[in-house]
Structure formats: C-alpha cells, structure tokens
Amino acid sequence: MSLVGTFLRRLFAGKSESALLPVGSVAPAFAVQDHMGRTVQLADLRGRRVVLWFFPKASTPG
Amino acid sequence: MVLGASFDTAEANRRFATEEAFPYPLLCDVDRRLGLSYKACANASDDYPRRITYVIGADSRIEQAITTKDPGGQADSILASL
C-alpha cells in the first residue's frame, strides 16, 4: 500500500510540476512593471508575437 | 517582442539588464501574480519562478509552452521554430 501511495504521489507531483498553460489557450492578461518602471501590458502587444521567458534570478546564469 | 520575467526588484533587474546588455524589458513580478497565472510558480511565497518560456501568438493565444532544460541552447531552438 505504501509503495502504491508513494508511486501515486510521485506521479501526481510530477504532473503538477510539469503542467503549463495549454497550447491554443488564451494567454492570461497581465500588466507588470519592467526594470525601467514602465508598465508592460499584454493587451498592448496584441498583433505581435511575444516570447515570455521566466528566469529564476537576476545576475545568475541561465 | 521578447519579455524576460523574474520575481526580482526593478533595481536587481536593471543591474542584470545592464550586465547582460538585454535589449528588451525584464518584468519585475515581485507579487508573483504573473508567475502564478502562467504556472511559473505554485505559490505567492515561492522564491523563484521555474525556467519556462511561452510563445504567445499575435492573437494572444499560447503557441508554444516550453520547460527549459538547456538554458544556453533554448534561444536558438525557439528562434528556429518561429
């Protein structure tokens, strides 16, 4: 039982960890300040392709 | 259009942008709202977002959703796919 439980926990942990927004879904609206204090809104970028890249921490590799 | 995003302050990201000469905005998601809505983190108390990248189409739909395993090689593969 505990082995099955461990397996299932790992299975679901792995799934929730890897879950991203589905391809084809509408990108969530956002308005976020950038490093120069400008507000960047997704709505203002409609009509352009956007690459949104999350990085863990400033001034670290990758 | 490329947008970087992290949970850093504007000051930390200004320094990073200067060091790396990034020509594009670095979003300072200090309250994690962007990270939460894009599944880059699970909780507003998380220290760091995951290394993930989205390509959002001109129609505001998700075109690609990528978990980065090779930060150095990712940019080339994404650019090649566009």
Your description of this structure?
Chain A is an alpha+beta fold. Chain A is 27% helix and 18% strand. Chain A has a domain of 34 residues. Chain A has a two-stranded antiparallel sheet. The longest helix of chain A is centred in the N-terminal third of the chain and has 17 residues. Chain A is elongated and about 50 Å long. The mean pLDDT of chain A is 85. Chain B is of the alpha+beta class and 82 residues long. In chain B, the strands form two sheets. Chain B has a two-stranded parallel sheet. Chain B has a single domain, classed as Glutaredoxin (3-Layer(aba) Sandwich). The chains are: A alpha+beta (62), B alpha+beta (82). The interface between A and B is large, with 39 and 54 residues. β3 of chain A pairs antiparallel with β3 of chain B, so a sheet runs across the interface.
Element-by-element helix/strand order of chain A = HEEE
Structural class of chain B: alpha+beta
Helix content of chain A: 25-40%
Q: Give the number of helices of chain B.
A: 3
Largest interface: A-B, 39 and 54 residues
Order the strands across the largest sheet of chain A as they lie in space: 1-2
Strand content of chain A: 15-25%
CATH top-level class of chain B: Alpha Beta
Alpha carbon gyration radius of chain A: 18 Å
Q: State the low-pLDDT regions of chain A, or none.
A: none
Radius of gyration of chain B: 13 Å
Q: Helical region count of chain A?
A: 1
Roughly what fraction of the amino acids of chain B lie in strands?
15-25%
- The CATH fourth-level homologous superfamily of chain B: Glutaredoxin
Please report the distance between the alpha carbons of the first and last residues of chain A.
41 Å
Q: Which ranges of chain B are low-confidence, i.e. pLDDT below 50, for 5 or more consecutive residues?
A: none
- Largest beta sheet of chain A, briefly? 2 strands, antiparallel
CATH topology of chain B: Glutaredoxin
Number of domains of chain B: 1
